[in-house]
């Protein structure tokens, strides 16, 4: 069984995420940065996480320059983080901000297009960890806090399964398939109550990952990740309840 696909989304008010606290992983990537800004623009207090503190500080400065609500920086290398690190993050959010209303798992590891016979085991394991195990561990640590919110959502980012099941997509393709199955199980375990579990399936975007995966393609013919970020805001908002347990599919027919 695969998660149902939906394509429709309702219009959002300007303050769709007012008074909410949202955690964005991989905040310095293309989709992560766009999502952090879009969520802040919608009124959320955004916690931005990533491996490199300097890049997080640059994003912080850029958001303030755009007169967006001040984000909260929390450097975290999810490749090497322990369950204790995730628990400490959840405890710190509750202590300092008092609530958590959403998580956006935008962090990703893409080791490149490689035949499985040539895939370096450490790269395979790293991709599986960053793309599947780390989102699991972080979500699990934050579940008690998310459950306290009157309406909360965890958003996972997928990729085109029709492409990723082909040759050479290796660990990235396998990890995205595993991620969808994990999310489906998590939804089945949380199909009632205030916590929603859902996925975003973007179309082609102008990102560094796209340039690396499709070498030689003119990436600039694709749109920036802004529309995908707005779709994430929709999923995080009360209106996103219509896509509970589903994949919001932004690919063109």
Automatic annotation (TrEMBL):
SUPFAM superfamilies: NAD(P)-binding Rossmann-fold domains (SSF51735). Belongs to the short-chain dehydrogenases/reductases (SDR) family. PROSITE patterns: ADH_SHORT. Keywords: Oxidoreductase. InterPro entries: NAD(P)-bd_dom_sf, Sc_DH/Rdtase_CS, SDR_fam. Pfam families: adh_short (PF00106). It comes from Dyella ginsengisoli. This is SDR family NAD(P)-dependent oxidoreductase. It comes from the Bacteria.
